[in-house]
Amino acid sequence: MLTRIKNILFLLLLLPFILCSEPVSEHLIYGIPSASDIVLNKRGFSLGYSQKYKQAIWVSYILEANNLLRQQVPRRNKFRADPSVKNPVKPSDYSRTGFDRGHLAPAADMTYSVITEKESFYMTNMSPQIPGCNRGIWKRVEAQVRAWAIREERICVITGPIFSANYKKMGKADIAVPIAFYKVILDLTPPKKMIAFIIPNQPSKRRIQSFIVPVDTVESITGYTFFSELLYHSDYNLKRRSNYSDWK
After folding, report:
1. What is the pLDDT of residue 9?
2. Per-residue pLDDT for 168 more than 50?
3. Is 25 helix (H, G, I), strand (E, B) or coil?
4. Helix, strand, or coil here: 180?
5. How far is CA 207 from CA 134, 149, 162, 169, 204, in A?
6. Residues 6+ apart with CB under 8 A from 175
7. Rounded CA gap, 192 and 231, in Å?
8. CB 138: neighbour CB atoms within 10 A?
9. Distance between CA atoms of 54 and 49, rounded to whole angstroms?
10. Which residue of 58, 98, 111, 115 has the lowest C-beta tally within 10 Å?
11. Which of 146, 122, 243, 140 is nearest to 194 (CA)?
């Protein structure tokens, strides 16, 4: 009887924490890629923000055909500081630096609602990109991912910057400049498959196929673990294979 009373009291003590715990975002149901200073759950995506680099080190979201095919809201290009972080980066911190405010979660993936479009322009979703990269090869990869999402109906996309050991900083805010960017994709409709890209932060006219790598290659470079919730599932082995022909 005494043991039962103790168990009840223990559960009562835990109840406030259980009730107050924040549910896992749908964009993180396959796992959090890496520890970060803060995880921000937006309507259209989740991200892990780094105060050291002054940007997200990963952005994760579920991209669905239904959202891409519905009527899209106008893109307003209204960049803004994110009130969710301390000492936030401001849009002006990129001014006259020679770098674009490069979206990690693309605005074109988020124009299915006013809220998602607005949140995609928070500076926590921006990373310094060479204009020729942002408006060229990176834009082409983003367009291909949207095409895959429409055909496959539902995919998980994780994107982020890659830094060198002696990375450079830009502007008065000392924002870290990536040497490259990764994009990891999991097809959620059978037959499931994975694919990844590593895109140098520089202009390129090469075909996007030449930047394809296995997901576990991105893990080796970044030290992150993608789709950890699949660890004990056969789909986890898909990390070793990235074949463009599988997605045609």
Report:
1. 44
2. yes
3. coil
4. strand
5. 15, 20, 21, 29, 8
6. 53, 54, 55, 89, 93, 94, 128, 169
7. 15
8. 26
9. 8
10. 98
11. 243
Count of C-beta atoms within a 10 Å radius of residue 134? 21
- Where b means 16+ CB within 10 Å and e means fewer, 110-132 reads bbbeeebbbbbbbbbbbbbbbee
Tell the burial category of 235 from Cβ atoms under 10 Å away from its Cβ (0-12, 13-18, 19+).
Answer: middle
Closest C-alpha among 55, 39, 33, 50 to residue 127: 55
How far the first Cα of the chain sits from its last, in Å, is: 65
SS3 content of the chain, % helix, strand, coil (to 5): 35, 25, 40
pLDDT tens digit sequence for 16-68: 433 333 457 999 999 999 999 999 999 999 999 999 999 999 999 999 999 99
Q: Is the dihedral of CA 83, 101, 161, 107 positive or negative?
A: positive
pLDDT tops 90 at residue 8: no
Domains, in order of start, for the chain: 21-247 (3.40.570.10)
What are 182's two structure tokens?
A: 């990764």
Residue 56, judged by CB atoms within 10 A of its CB (0-12, 13-18, 19+), counts as buried
Task: Provide the token pair at 141.
Answer: 């990869």
Mean pLDDT of 204-209: 97
Among 185, 177, 137, which residue's Cα sits nearest to residue 159? 185
Burial (0-12, 13-18, 19+ Cβ within 10 Å), 88: middle
Residue 41 structure tokens: 């759950």
CA distances from 189 to 80, 128, 148, 156, 159 (A): 35, 33, 11, 10, 20
